[in-house]
Amino acid sequence: MFSPLRHAAYRNLFTAQVAALLGTGMATVALGLLAFDLAGANAGQVLGAALAIKMVAYIGVAPFASALAARLPRKALLVSLDGVRAGVAVALPFVSEPWQVYGLMTVLYIASAAFTPAFQAMIPDLLPDEADYTKALSLSRLAADLESVASPVLAAVLLAFISYNNLFVGTALGFVVSALFVVGASLPMLTKIQPKPFIQRLTGGLRLFALTPRLRGLLAISLATAAGGAMVFVNTVVLVQSQFGLSEQASAWALAAFGGGSMTAAVFLPRLLGRMTDRRAMVLGAGVMTAVLLAGAWVAVSYPVLIGLWVIMGFGYSLTITPAGRALRRSSTAQDRPALFAAQFALSHACWLIAYPVAGLVSAEADPGAAFLVLAALCATGAVLGLLIWPARDPEILAHDHPELEPDDPHLADKTASVPAAAHAHPFVIDERHDRWPTSGK
């Protein structure tokens, strides 16, 4: 699993990701505690609103940032955005009103919306081998889970000695360390090609989603991912501190349990994906999350039970989210990949924009048990839609024809005897030459 780390540039980027996520994880814990400090039992409503702002920023900014970044130096862009995020983290300990939280977090989320897709789109360029890329996805999932495991554990220890406001200092340090490792990475140069018009760069990723069946299915499963994750991220502090009457440290340990389940799945995923399709793994994960949400409505009545539920939830969450990068890679050329990752970033967060307010408002207006049930229905809807939209038979190489081309056109040079005379077969993606998905084997 760790073989991609032998690649120096990827190793630097991976270390940068770990540093940033450790800091972000501490900020996640501190933000939840800040919301509880400001709103008490209604903390879920405050936190849900803040996270909804995050989703709006991600949805609105990511495609524009990707289109604009096509003309900017990658390294300078990433380092600058890390600097902005560090500055916001330094300011967060001084807030005293919810509107101040919303304003600062909007700036942080806009910077993250520009940073994350650009970062993710570079990994396939660094690791062109499919096996290495699959391992890198699992490593990235493990790194992301540090936000849910190592950061809450570290936060729980630190909270015994410092106030939660000081956790934001750790967030700032994480972004500074991330910027330093990006500076030290040797990033691949983009192929010099004639840039597409801005509007095509802006909408290109959305077009790939609209015309590629597996990507439409991936989006449906993203709804399930958001439903399960929103219950954890919004209502853990409400369940632990308001309903169970426990401490801030107990909230941090509960979030760590969720991350532990996710890390466990990430460790086994490279081997699992060698035997199971991305579609099957992701639908299975959505099913696990739906079952946990249904069970939680009745059995999440004590802290130990909640810990167990969150471990299983984390396992299902990782199954739904880790294989997504493979599906994105299969569905794009290197030229279109940044736009596709940006579109995935925006569209998946549109699903979170639905789930976060639901998790916060239902919990605040009714109770966490009702939130479990409503989010279970949302999760099941995503799983079923994913099964229906994403074809069970989804080969990478598809036979298709080009009636508009002359028989001696160079694009038809790879035709084989197994397909009709006017057809050929190759790894199929939507691009300028292929503007529709083949049907009936064509």
Which keywords apply here?
mainly alpha, 442 residues, two-stranded antiparallel sheet, globular, single chain
Task: Give me a quick take on this structure.
The chain has 442 residues and is an all-alpha fold. It contains 15 helices and 2 strands.
Task: Produce the secondary structure layout.
Blueprint (H helix, E strand, L loop, with lengths): L7 H32 L3 H27 L4 H18 L6 H29 L3 H16 L4 H9 L8 H18 L13 H14 L1 H31 L4 H25 L5 H22 L3 H19 L2 H7 L6 H29 L2 H22 L7 E5 L21 E5 L15
Antiparallel strand pairs: 1-2
Could you explain the architecture of this structure?
- This protein has 442 residues and is an all-alpha fold.
- The chain has a single domain, classed as Growth Hormone, Chain: A, CATH 1.20.1250.
- The chain is 72% helix and 2% strand.
- It is built from 15 helices and 2 strands.
- It has helices at residues 8-39, 43-69, 74-91, 98-126, 130-145, 150-158, 167-184, 198-211, 213-243, 248-272, 278-299, 303-321, 324-330, 337-365, 368-389; strands at residues 397-401, 423-427.
- Strands 1-2 form a two-stranded antiparallel sheet.
- The longest helix has 32 residues, at 8-39.
- It is globular and about 75 Å long.
The name of the CATH superfamily reads: MFS general substrate transporter like domains
- Low-confidence segments: none
Structural class of the helix and strand makeup? mainly alpha
The strand order across the widest sheet is 1-2
For the record, the CATH class is Mainly Alpha
Helical coverage, percent range: over 70%
Work out the radius of gyration. Answer: 22 Å
Shape: globular
- How many alpha or pi helices? 15
- Which architecture name does CATH use? Up-down Bundle
Distance between the termini: 37 Å
Average pLDDT metric: 78
The beta-strand count equals: 2
Q: Biggest β-sheet: count, sense, barrel? A: 2 strands, antiparallel
* Secondary-structure element order, N to C: HHHHHHHHHHHHHHHEE
Percent of sequence in beta strands: under 5%
Q: In the residues, how many domains can be counted? A: 1
* CATH topology assignment: Growth Hormone, Chain: A
